[in-house]
Amino acid sequence: MASYWTKRRKLNARVEKHVQFISEFDEADTNAISKYEVQISSEQEHIPSTSAIYANSSYFEICSKLADERTVQNIVDSESLNNSECTLNPCENNCVDRLAMEKIMKQPLLKVFLSDTSHLFNEDSDSDISDEIDVEVSDSNLIKSLCHWATEFRIPHSALSDLLGLLHVHHDFLPKDPRTLLNTTRTYNIAEKAGGQYFHFGFSSYIEKSFVKQVKDHSGYYGCDKCCQKGVWMGKMTFPETAAALRTDIQFDEMRNEEHHIGQSPFRHLQMGMVTQFPLDYMHLVCLGVVKRIVCLWMKSPVTNRCRLGTSIITQTSDTLVSLRSYIPREFVRKCRSLREYERWKATEFRQFLLYTGPLALFGKLNADMYNHFMLLFVGIYCLSSESLSRSHCQYANDLLKVFVEQFSELYGRDMVVYNVHCLIHLASDVKSFGPLDSFSSFPFENYLGKLKEMIRQPNFPLSQIIPRLSEQEGQKVNIKLPENQLKQLHKMGPLTFVYIYYQQYKEIHLPNVYISVFQGNNCVMINGSVALVRNIVSTADKCSVFIIYETFDNMHDFFTYPLKSSNLGIYKLSQLQGRLRVSPLSLIACKYFMLPFKQSFVCIPLLH
């Protein structure tokens, strides 16, 4: 049942509609209406006093205009109407004088008007009970919506307080204090620990491994936590072996390798594998470790080192990367930057360079040995990052990464096989246990640090600002259920096939894990076993059936053949569009592609992130 406020809005809307209608008539007779007393029937007693019908003298104007001009003249007394006696505050309850309108009520048009609105208030007792329930539900929904809005857009408490003050006039159930609305934590204990401040939110799944395990870190001779080899000091600790004996959980529990341990782990009684249950972090190990080191060697290694790139090569590669910015899919927040800015690159930029833009930007610029060596890393990490390839090509990826580590010392020097480079040979075993690399990487934690930073509005006492904001988010878990497919940007520009000329057309669609549109960078997909460009998105009026109008390529070739054919990974070099439109259901899209220009063609790589 509709709530009281819904009924009131409907009634006001009707009044406004009639006011607009009668505004076209001459207002010459508006002051001729006199005051009458009307005997109110028992049914009319239910009409709320706050109704716009009896709100003020403007109601008489409505009635007089709706009635026939001649009839109005017959019913109007010579006595003039005193407007001040009828002026009321529409927000007040039970304080409206009943207006004398008995003769005007007899007019046909007015009867229709009132009869149309009378059903909003003439309800039995059961309906009244239902209305009270509806009001409670409506109030609860408003509170939840306000909480979600305030936390989602990080509304300051000062602004939210002013808003609540305005809303409280019309919705007295709303609190005036934003802390009450958001259930903000007001008391908390911050402890002084190790020269800093500490507050316990709960157990974190990412804790510094060497500290928790009580073992030597990566700079120690026995710093590798996956194998038993002793490191070699070459100005820095290196781990050149690729076939050393692996550590086991039992050996760790028994502390057989005393040089590896610095004490007893507080987790030793938890019956968890202290070797197998501590996976390597792909974000720091590969993206910020190996990839950043390789780029650094290209840019800043000694001149006598043959791996250093010349200025012209660096410029060409940087120009290529920058030119790809407009082709970056929406899933990537950061666009390509010049190689000269690599020291400011974030981990996601190194990942993007390794898995998508690097193989294309470096093509023809590195010598054959260095490029093929980079491709070993690219294919190995790509396989371990893919949901499907991590199952079918896991061992193959392990073999490639071992060859990469062995060749690393030949190309870049024996002193460069440090902990990060060495641990590439252990990544595949963690993928076998935990799934694709991104399923146990630090990327989610790093992303959350950005959210914590947004909660800090002043430089002082950051922890005291974060704790209340987190309590508001945790206390107000508003689940907004969005449709699975959100179609946006309605248009009529085509192209269309004959069968679908009466369908609604859209330029973009938001799926649960991917965004597809007709625009460059987001319009390349795999559909019906072919790589295609999305030309239009159409649907039925109810949006239950969505279809993709697309165009495929005539030529699909391998982009590279070493260390394997790129088509085995779903990577192709494309050219020459067919020029013929095809239509398929949205459900037939297998994946989205990262499509980049390459000479006179395009290179497409299945999107993993």
SSE arrangement:
Elements (H helix, E strand, L loop, with lengths): L3 H19 L35 H9 L2 H7 L26 H4 L2 H11 L6 H28 L4 H12 L9 H5 L8 E3 L2 E3 L10 H5 L18 E2 L3 E2 L10 H6 L27 H19 L10 H13 L23 H15 L6 H18 L3 H4 L1 H19 L6 H4 L4 H8 L8 H12 L7 H14 L10 E6 L12 E7 L4 E3 L6 E4 L2 E10 L6 E12 L14 E6 L4 E4 L3 E10 L2 E6 L3
Antiparallel strand pairs: 1-2, 3-4, 5-6, 6-7, 6-9, 8-9, 8-13, 9-10, 10-11, 10-12, 11-14, 13-14
Helix pairs in contact: 11-13, 14-16, 16-18
Compact overview of the structure:
The protein is α+β, with helices and mostly antiparallel strands.
Molecular structure report:
The chain has 609 residues and is of the alpha+beta class. Among the domains are: 4-122, no CATH class; 282-441, no CATH class; 486-606, Roll (SH3 type barrels), CATH 2.30.30. It contains 20 helices and 14 strands. It has helices at residues 4-22, 58-66, 69-75, 102-105, 108-118, 125-152, 157-168, 178-182, 209-213, 249-254, 282-300, 311-323, 347-361, 368-385, 389-392, 394-412, 419-422, 427-434, 443-454, 462-475, and strands spanning 191-193, 196-198, 232-233, 237-238, 486-491, 504-510, 515-517, 524-527, 530-539, 546-557, 572-577, 582-585, 589-598, 601-606. The strands form three sheets. It has a six-stranded antiparallel barrel with strand order 8-9-10-11-14-13. A hairpin with a 2-residue loop joins strand 8 (524-527) and strand 9. Helix 14 (368-385) runs antiparallel to helix 16 (394-412) and helix 16 (394-412) runs antiparallel to helix 18. The longest helix is centred in the first third of the chain and has 28 residues, at 125-152. The chain is globular, with a radius of gyration of 36 Å. The two termini are 46 Å apart.
